[in-house]
Structure formats: structure tokens, C-alpha cells
Write a structure and sequence with these properties.
The structure is a single chain. By secondary structure, the protein is mainly α. The chain has 29 helices and no strands. The protein is about 80% helix and about 0% strand. Helix 26 packs antiparallel against helix 27. The longest helix has 25 residues.
């Protein structure tokens, strides 16, 4: 028996052939990521992953500068398959090789920024993106500059730096048009629209829809699915829940086809959020737990924090406060440990649960800790965290401290030129004034909000302000004025099929009618509210429990014991028409009572 051994030259020749074959596979797949057959090529990389890794590792060990190109080609695949950590290690090693060009280094750093971002390493991602942009501009390569600009834009999006990111994405869009590359145009147009939306106005929405049409036409499935997921958010903000769910489902189909695990997870969480706003908490809870199980596998702490927040939110909506608190506390612990901007939402969920449990002192403590944490992280989300602290302090009766938080938040919002944040803070100020008993000033603030027409998530803001206006007018012995305001709110929600805010509108309508001494009609509307709540399983928000109990006492009824009541005709005409329209839109009516 004879044994043959390969010579060093033969081994080197085989290694070279192996690298050439699999680097070409990676290059071909990269050229198809934004084509209709993207899923087919991603699956090919899946099946060849061991050989791809071996070829790349050998090339890096041998000091071959071509290894950097191969690593860049695999970056999208790594990120979509939750291989970002090992991918970032390989890409960083390839960037250290001698002989790489300035252009390739710029592209490599832009790709590394994306991988770092997906791992929650925001600062390192930002550093890589900025270095990429410097190198790209020195090289004069416009494609490299586009990639670097979009890396900066993605960092700005995650950090919430929308105003500065908008400037960068507009520069990227100019380059995309100069290169006449439709995929690059769709990508940058989408982000331009996204940031424009954050500043209000229809132009942003139009840009996003144009980007969607272009992405669909050229068959760019990753971009199509991303835009659909964002349009679901826009539709939710406008109260168009059926449309939002359609967008969610269409996006999820593409996410699943591509096998992009990060996108699949975001798809599940987006659907859970839509279901919560559609007042379908049971289904939302199921989807949120699926998302959480999926997130347990992710290397990204930011994604895990988000999944825990959805689990906490949906649990709380079902009144499962102990479970909700466990999810929220875990999200807070992870968010604080890794310095995640998602800590804002984690704390918000924890504070909401504590308030629902009646633990105001602990809620105030958590809000103070939230501000300290977000201040240390250094994120624009500090504005919203201060707003949460303001509301929490106000509920605890600490009005002076609440106003200090509000003023700091407002100053930060002005500095950052964030119109939506300013609007949100106006809602907070109006509620604070109302709680302080300064009803004239509160009414003026709510009326200011009612005049805003160019923010794309206007329905929740309008709903809250109209219900509050009606409440103030009722408390000032102006039930006729209260009836007129709540009628507008009911019509607004019926036009959008908005279930999430319908409970408050129906209960306020009942309270208005009780103030008008229209007992029968008040009982009837409250019965509609109970029917809707029983159908969906949504609980009365803790802030409304006391007022609702007072209303039930006034009407001498108990929950679950509302009798069928026929309309007497005494009901204020506008209010009756609006409420009945609302109930029909939500599939409930007098027969339900």
C-alpha cells in the first residue's frame, strides 16, 4: 500500500482554486441581493457556508487583499442570518490586511458599520461609518461614498438623529441619481421619506410610497419588505389598522422568503404592535411571545430588548401585570447593561405596569432612573424619557418637578428641531395643566393640538386631545360643548376604524350624556363600550378606572349588568349619530347591549 502526500505547491494551488470558486460565489450572490432571485442566492450561500468560511479564513491567514472584497460581499448575508458577530470579526481582520485599496477599505468600513449596528455596538458603528466616509471622499469613488453616506444615515436612524441624517441621505440620493442606479435611488429615497415623515407633512409619505413603487418594479425584495414594514407604522399612526395589517403581512411574506432572521423578527414585532393598536390584545400577545422566542436566538441585545418590550406591553393589556413586569424588568436590565437606546421603551413599559399596579412611588423612582440612564447613553430618546418622567411625576402630584422635566424636554426638542417631539410635549403640558386644575390654559393647549394637520400619526394625538377637551368642558358644566367635541372625536375614529381609542371616546360620550341627564342613552353607550371591550379583551386603562367607576355609580349600574335599553330620542343628535357611526365601524351596536 502506498501513501501519497500533496506538496506545498499543490496545497497552495488547491487553496487558490477553492478561494476563487467561493469568492466568485459570494460576488455573484452579492450582485443578486437586490434582485428578484435574492432568496435563491441567499440559500446557496446558506448551503455553502462552511466552504465560504474556510476559503475566507485561509485567504485572511495568507494575507490575500482579495479577502476584503469577499468579506464585503458576504456582509449582507451575515447580517440577515444572525452571523454578524463572526462576520464582523472576519471583516475587521480583512481590513487589517496590507495591499487593500482605499476604495475597498471605505466599502469594508461601511459594511462593518452595518454589522456593528446590528450587534447594538452603536458607537463603534458610527466610528466605522465616519472613517468610511472620509476614505471614500478621498478616493473620489462615488459608489463608495454612497455606501459610506448610507452607513452614516443608518447610524443616525438608530440613534434618532433624524435632522442631520436627512441632510446626509439627500447627498446620497444625489449620488444615486448621478449613477442612475435604481436600487440605490429606492434605498436613499426611502430614507429621505422616512426622515421627512418624522418632521411632519405629506411629502415624506409620498417619498416612501414612490420608493416602494420603484423597489417593486425592479424586484428589490429586501427594500420592498422594509418599506412595507414602515408603511404599516404610518398606517397605524393614521388609525388605518386594516391597511397596517395588510402591509405587515405582505412584508412578513417577503421576510420569510428571504430568510432574513433580523427582518423576520422585526416583522413579528411590527404585527404585534398593529394588533395592539387594533385592540386585539389576545392575538398580539400570541405574536409577541413568538417574537420573544425568536429573539432569544439573536446576538443583538437591542432586538431582545425590543421583543421583551412587546411581550410586556401585550401582557399588560391583558391585565397580566406580574408577567408584564418580569418582561419589562429584564428589558431594563439588558438595556442598561449594554447602553441600548431601547432602554427608553423598556422603562416606559415598566413604569406603565407599576402605575397599573398602583405603585406610584416605584413608578416615579423608575422614571428618575430612566432619565439618568438615557442621559448617560446620550440619545435623542432622552426627550421622550423626560416626557415620561413628566407624566409620572404629575400623576404622583409632584407638579413642580414635572414641569422641570417638561421644560428640559422642550428645550432639547427645540435644539434638535423635532416638530413631532414638540407636539408630543404639548400633549404632556396640556395634561399637566389639566391635572393642576388650570383648565383655561389646558383647554387652550388641547385646542392648539387640534389645529395640527401635518403629522402623519395625527389620529392618536387628535383622539387624546378631543377626549380631554370634552372632559374639561364637562367638568366646567358645559355638557353641550362637551357633546360637540366628543362627537368630532367619535366621527374621526369611526372614519379610521380606530378601536384603540374608541373605549375612551365611548365612555366619555356616556359621561357627557349622564351630565345632560340622558340616563338611558348614557347606559346604552356604556353598554356598547362594554361589548367592544368584551369582544377584544382590552382592559380599561388604569387612569380611567376611577372616573369610570364614578360614572357607573352615577348611573346606578355595575359592570356586566347593563340592561338592554331602547333609544328614547332625547340623545343629542350630533353625538348620537357620531357614536352610532363609531359603533358600526367597530362592529358593535345597540343590539350588542
Amino acid at each position: 500500500m502506498t501513501t501519497s502526500t500533496r506538496t506545498d505547491d499543490e496545497i497552495s494551488w488547491l487553496a487558490d482554486k477553492h478561494f476563487q470558486y467561493f469568492s466568485q460565489l459570494a460576488a455573484t450572490a452579492a450582485s443578486r441581493y437586490h434582485k428578484p432571485d435574492a432568496a435563491e442566492w441567499l440559500n446557496k450561500l446558506d448551503s455553502a457556508i462552511d466552504d465560504l468560511n474556510a476559503a475566507l479564513d485561509r485567504a485572511i491567514a495568507d494575507g490575500r487583499p482579495e479577502a476584503l472584497t469577499m468579506a464585503i460581499d458576504l456582509s449582507f448575508f451575515w447580517e440577515s442570518r444572525w452571523l454578524a458577530e463572526e462576520g464582523a470579526e472576519r471583516l475587521a481582520a480583512a481590513l487589517d490586511l496590507e495591499g487593500t485599496t482605499q476604495v475597498d477599505r471605505a466599502k469594508g468600513l461601511a459594511s462593518l458599520s452595518g454589522l456593528r449596528l446590528s450587534l447594538g455596538e452603536d458607537e463603534r458603528a458610527q466610528e466605522a461609518a465616519e472613517e468610511a466616509l472620509l476614505l471614500a471622499r478621498k478616493s473620489g469613488d462615488r459608489r463608495a461614498e454612497f455606501s459610506a453616506l448610507m452607513a452614516v444615515v443608518h447610524c443616525g436612524y438608530v440613534e434618532g438623529n433624524y435632522a442631520s441624517a436627512l441632510e446626509e441621505v439627500q447627498k446620497a440620493l444625489e449620488i444615486a441619481r448621478e449613477l442612475d442606479d435604481e436600487s440605490l435611488i429606492a434605498h436613499s429615497s426611502y430614507f429621505e421619506g422616512l426622515f421627512s415623515l418624522s418632521q411632519g407633512g405629506e411629502l415624506g409619505r409620498k417619498r416612501v410610497e414612490e420608493a416602494l413603487a420603484l423597489a417593486r418594479r425592479i424586484g428589490d425584495k429586501p427594500m420592498t419588505s422594509s418599506i412595507l414594514a414602515h408603511l404599516a407604522l404610518v398606517a397605524r399612526g393614521a388609525g388605518q389598522m386594516d391597511l397596517a395589517l395588510r402591509y405587515n403581512e405582505e412584508a412578513q411574506q417577503v421576510f420569510d422568503e428571504l430568510g432574513s432572521r433580523t427582518a423576520q423578527l422585526w416583522g413579528h414585532m411590527g404585527r404585534a404592535e398593529t394588533l395592539l393598536f387594533a385592540a386585539e390584545p389576545r392575538e398580539a400577545y400570541r405574536v409577541a411571545l413568538e417574537a420573544l422566542a425568536f429573539a432569544q436566538q439573536t446576538p443583538s441585545p437591542d432586538l431582545l430588548v425590543s421583543a421583551l418590550c412587546y411581550a410586556a406591553w401585550s401582557s399588560a393589556e391583558l391585565g397580566q401585570y406580574a408577567e408584564a413586569r418580569l418582561h419589562a424588568e429584564r428589558a431594563v436590565e439588558i438595556g442598561r447593561r449594554v447602553g441600548s437606546p431601547g432602554s427608553h421603551w423598556a422603562y416606559l413599559n415598566l413604569i406603565n405596569v407599576l402605575q397599573a399596579e398602583g405603585q406610584l412611588a416605584l413608578a416615579v423612582q423608575a422614571s428618575n432612573e430612566a432619565v439618568e440612564t438615557l442621559r448617560r447613553i446620550g440619545t435623542p430618546l432622552l426627550i421622550r424619557t423626560l416626557a415620561v418622567q413628566c407624566r409620572t411625576l404629575a400623576r404622583a402630584g409632584q407638579f413642580e418637578r414635572a414641569r422641570v422635566s417638561l421644560e428640559e424636554a422642550r428645550e432639547l426638542a427645540r435644539e434638535r428641531d423635532e416638530p413631532w417631539e414638540v407636539t408630543t410635549l404639548t400633549i404632556n403640558e396640556a395634561r399637566l395643566l389639566e391635572m393642576e386644575g388650570k383648565l383655561d390654559e389646558a383647554e387652550q393647549k388641547y385646542q392648539e393640538i387640534e389645529q395640527i394637520t401635518d403629522i402623519y400619526w395625527q389620529l392618536p394625538v387628535f383622539s387624546e386631545s378631543l377626549i380631554a377637551l370634552s372632559r374639561i368642558k364637562r367638568s366646567r358644566s358645559d355638557p353641550e360643548g362637551a357633546a360637540a367635541v366628543i362627537a368630532r372625536g367619535a366621527r374621526l375614529m369611526s372614519d379610521a376604524g380606530q378601536r384603540y381609542y374608541a373605549f375612551s371616546a365611548l365612555e366619555e360620550g356616556a359621561a357627557v350624556l349622564a351630565a345632560l341627564t340622558n340616563r338611558n342613552e348614557a347606559v346604552e353607550i356604556l353598554a356598547w363600550a362594554d361589548a367592544l371591550r368584551a369582544e377584544t379583551g382590552v382592559l380599561v386603562p388604569s387612569s380611567e378606572v376611577e372616573a369610570l367607576e364614578e360614572l357607573r355609580n352615577e348611573l346606578e349600574i355595575r359592570e356586566g349588568s347593563l340592561p338592554p335599553v331602547a333609544t328614547t330620542g332625547v340623545l343629542t343628535a350630533d353625538l348620537k349619530e357620531a357614536v352610532e357611526t363609531l359603533c358600526r365601524a367597530l362592529d358593535v351596536g345597540s343590539e350588542a347591549s
